[in-house]
Specification:
- The structure is a single chain.
- The protein is globular, with a radius of gyration of 20 Å.
- By secondary structure, it is an alpha/beta fold.
- Helix 4 runs parallel beside helix 5 and helix 10 packs parallel to helix 12.
- The termini are far apart.
- Helix content is about 45%, strand content about 15%.
- The longest helix has 23 residues.
- The protein has 15 helices and 11 strands.
- The strands form 2 sheets. Strands 4-3-2-1-5-6-7 form a 7-stranded parallel beta sheet, sandwiched between helices.
- Bound molecules: nicotinamide-adenine-dinucleotide (NAD) and magnesium ion.
- The site of magnesium ion has 4 residues, from helix 7.
């Protein structure tokens, strides 16, 4: 039986995780749920799944949650803040952590879960982008199992040799096992075809209207700028130990092939499915077994075209920024992520134009003096400093 903590249970991935869990009550027991501010939904989830612990962002949110729970007569303990998140992800009863908080806020509880040897289902790509080698080191040292939930990485994981090796054991060895490159597919988002001159005026709602996937607002904007693919390239580098030139981004607007692996003998192995996150979530929850995900099966008669094109880096400058951050190494991936988080939040708040998101990231990367990502403290400092620089850059841009 998997005893599960869902970090970010009220988000898009969190809710889909609980959908799959609901279908398999004999396999899964929810021990802890966390949310930032949506206490109503979290209270409903507690009513249904009866976790031992529920965690929210602030002491005020904790008070409201306690009130709601006591009105419903629910026994769940309530905690809050970063310490509460770590308490949830490292609880003795928990053996599996779904890391589905968005952004840097997920790093600490996910890292602590890795150190504690929990099985980690990783959706929170920002945590890995920030802490790369340190995180993979923690996984290897504790013997924790790491299963990628991001659909592309889950697809690659399924297509690589030795997919049973979940502890990073095969990491870095894939070229010697005949892997030439991985083909990271991308839909190209809602603005793939929009005239370039119109991009400057797009609104947050337009950016969040993804053609194929329903997701949280931050990752939806990342998909529209293609920073999401840039973060995923870095994610693939750390997860599978591949260099940037062994990871090729391929635009595939239909989002049916979720990614592929090309082998030295000419074989290309792909994973296909509906664009529905319940498939990779069920893969991670059920691993090493396959379980029903509640996803419509793929009907080949309804697939008209599977098309492919190269990514246009004039339209999507964020992709190149991610590659340079990866190549620079050290704290630059952390800086890339932090400045992108700041810029996307400003765009979602109508304080920054869509096309300025990549400008903010580029200028922040240029201003940051790189350092070794030698410890979590250094990484968190770099994250904070990058946020300060990005805010200054945005001020300069608006004056
Ligand atoms: P979302 O915005 O829908 O949900 C985010 C969750 O994180 C919520 O439960 C929220 O309460 C919690 N949260 C937000 N800020 C927090 C903070 N400061 N402290 C603690 N908790 C906080 O996001 P999502 O779309 O579910 O994405 C979650 C993660 O999964 C992201 O890293 C994203 O890149 C990744 N991911 C999502 C999808 C998808 O289809 N949605 C696909 C691949 C990867
Ligand atoms: Mg993805």
């Amino acid at each position: 039986m998997r005893h599960i903590c869902v970090l970010g249970s009220t988000g898009s991935i969190g809710v889909n995780t609980l959908h799959v869990v609901r279908e398999h009550s004999e396999l899964f027991k929810i021990e802890a749920l966390t949310a930032h501010s949506n206490v109503e939904l979290l209270a409903q989830q507690c009513q249904e799944f009866h976790p031992r612990l529920a965690v929210v962002g602030t002491s005020d949110a904790a008070k409201s949650l306690k009130n709601l729970l006591s009105m419903k007569g629910i026994q769940t303990e309530v905690s809050y803040g970063p310490a509460g998140l770590v308490e949830a992800s490292t609880m003795a009863d928990v053996n599996t952590v779904m890391a589905a908080i968005v952004g840097a806020a997920g790093l600490l509880p996910t890292m602590e879960a890795a150190k504690a040897g929990k099985r980690i289902l990783l959706a929170n790509k920002e945590a890995l982008v920030m802490s790369g080698d340190l995180f993979m080191g923690a996984v290897a040292q504790s013997g924790s199992e790491l299963l990628p939930i991001d659909s592309e990485h889950n697809a690659i994981y399924q297509c690589l040799p030795d997919a049973n090796t979940s502890n990073g054991g095969s990491r870095g060895q894939y070229p010697s096992l005949g892997v030439v490159e991985v083909l990271l597919t991308a839909s190209g988002g809602p603005f793939r075809k929009m005239p370039l001159a119109e991009l400057v005026n797009v609104t947050p709602d337009q950016a969040c209207a993804h053609p194929n996937w329903v997701m949280g607002r931050k990752i939806s904007v990342d998909s529209a700028t293609m920073m999401n693919k840039g973060l995923e390239l870095i994610e693939a580098h750390y997860l599978f130990g591949l260099s940037a030139d062994q990871i090729r981004v391929l635009i595939h607007p239909q989002s049916v092939i979720h990614s592929m692996v090309r082998y030295v003998d000419g074989s290309v192995i792909a994973q296909l499915g509906q664009p529905d996150m319940k498939t990779p979530i069920a893969y991670g929850l059920g691993w090493p077994h396959r379980i029903h995900a509640g996803v419509e099966s793929l009907d080949f008669m309804k697939l008209k075209d599977l098309t492919f094109e190269d990514a246009d880096t004039t339209r999507f400058p964020s992709l190149n920024l991610a590659v340079s951050a990866l190549q620079a190494g050290g704290c630059m991936p952390t800086v890339l992520n932090a400045s992108n988080e700041v810029a996307v939040a400003a765009f979602l708040n109508h304080e920054l134009r869509f096309t300025d998101i990549s400008q903010v990231v580029e200028r922040t990367l240029n201003q940051f003096k790189n350092c070794q990502a030698s410890s979590l403290e250094v990484i968190l400092e770099a994250d904070q400093l990058a946020r300060v620089i990005s805010s200054q850059v945005m001020k300069e841009m608006s004056s």
